[in-house]
Amino acid sequence: MTFDQPTNPNIDTTEEDMAIATDKGAILLDELNPAWFQAIDVSELVMSQYAQCIIGQCYPGKGFYHGLEQLNLTDLPDAYAYGFDLEDTSEDSNWDKLTALWTEKVTSRLEDWATSRA
Known about the structure:
The chain is mostly helical. The chain contains five helices and no strands.
């Protein structure tokens, strides 16, 4: 599955842009690492910290860029477009919003997974 890359990968302009990017990122993870959400400890999820972000928790101890490579993403603009990083890191509130969006994705998938096993 491929997604069109936005011409301006600055996804932290609005919360809507971040939501679209994290949707893309979650779909990509679903395709390439189907159990990814089981590796995430949402109580430790901090998107501004590479070791505690979605990529860091999916690919622990291997580094953020290794995780991007596992997802066939080649650089930071790819990470921005898929909601794994922010281009403008000056606003802490944007990191909080990004963490909240990913927390929702993880929680939703865990609930769906638990329901499917019941």
